[in-house]
Backbone:
């Protein structure tokens, strides 16, 4: 198993903060639960933006994040949203 890099830790921290922020926002504004795109999938958009920004800063090439790191980050963020909204 390879070691996690600084970018991996940054991604996981951003995704954790995203889960907390989305849950807090939707808890304060419950009407957003009925949005066209459900709040539980908003972390996927944040993950996409983070990935694009990291590739742009690197100057192209292969994506710097490994797929298991992406999966753990997105799933954990979505789980935080569901858990903090009382859906789990």
Residues:
């Amino acid at each position: 198993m390879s070691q996690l890099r600084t970018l991996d830790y940054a991604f996981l921290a951003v995704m954790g903060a995203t889960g907390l922020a989305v849950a807090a926002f939707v808890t304060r504004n419950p009407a957003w639960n009925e949005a066209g795109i459900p709040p539980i999938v908003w972390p996927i958009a944040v993950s996409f933006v983070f990935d694009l920004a990291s590739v742009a800063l690197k100057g192209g090439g292969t994506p710097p994040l490994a797929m298991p790191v992406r999966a753990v980050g997105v799933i954990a963020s979505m789980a935080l949203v569901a858990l903090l909204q009382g859906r789990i």
User: Anything to note?
Assistant: The chain has one domain: 6-84.
